[in-house]
Amino acid sequence: MARNAEKAMTTLARWRAAQVQEAGGQRERRPYLASECNDLPQAEKWRLQIVREIAKKVAQIQNAGLGEFRIRDLNDEINKLMREKRHWEVQIKSLGGPDHARVGPRMLDQDGKEVPGNRGYKYFGAAKDLPGVRELFEQEPPPPARRTRADLMRDVDADYYGYRDDDDGLLLPLEKNAEKHAIARAVEEWKRNKEQNKDQDLPEEENIYPEDPDDKRIEDDEEMPEKPPAPTLVAVPSQKDIEEALLRRKKQELLERYGCLDVKLENS
């Protein structure tokens, strides 16, 4: 790489030095306040200069090896230039120029996302990975929506309470089969324990369900058939039978009425 002295001797450097000498011997400085500039082309020139400085510093801040303090300083300088650029854009608009704030592009990072910030302060490049900055912009997952009582009751139906569990005819046979196996295992275990304790002098097991001879429920249970009798079918009269019954009833009423009249006439 060429030394600084060699750079100064280049054609561009000599031409720029000649331009500065022609302009008055010193380089023109940007006004401290944007409101001090009343020339639209000059205002556009200073705004463009600020944009170039911002681009230069944004390129520098991408290097994470600069150190935390240098990165923070660069980020502060970029934010300061951003505020100054907005002041020049307002001045340009007041002088009749274009509205750069409305038509200008958004500040995007290297991933194409809008630069994160808080209350106007933006973080660029490696500044987004500084301690305390990443946690500042991590979005917590939204809490789950709380379901109301109406939402909960909307899913409650007859199946929820188990009203129709036996309608398919599959559960009852399985329960009966499981009950038979459970009873058989219990009886087998009882017999096995009884055989093992046969040689030992153990007191006889007390019957916790003694039979009461005066209890008529035992006789009723013995007399009850295993299966209920088949329901008797009631003959339903047809339309013709109903008409005949109505006709007989009408005749009987007429006989009773006029029979009483004949008896009264005879007596008179």
List keywords for this structure.
single chain, 268 residues, mainly alpha, two-stranded antiparallel ribbon, 11 helices, Isy1, Helix_hairpin_bin_sf
Structural class: mainly alpha
Radius of gyration (Å): 54 Å
Structure annotation, total helices: 11
Within the largest sheet, what's the order of strands? 1-2
List SSEs in N-to-C order: HHHHHEEHHHHHH
Terminal-residue CA separation:
160 Å
Assembly of the depicted chains: single chain
Average pLDDT metric:
77
Layout of strands and helices, then pairs:
Elements (H helix, E strand, L loop, with lengths): L3 H5 L2 H13 L16 H22 L6 H27 L5 H4 L13 E2 L2 E2 L10 H5 L11 H6 L3 H4 L9 H26 L19 H8 L15 H29 L1
Antiparallel strand pairs: 1-2
Helix pairs in contact: 3-4
Give a structural overview.
The protein has 268 residues and is mainly α. 56% of the residues lie in helices and 1% in strands. The protein is built from eleven helices and two strands. It has a two-stranded antiparallel ribbon. A hairpin with a 2-residue loop joins strand 1 and strand 2 (121-122). It is elongated.
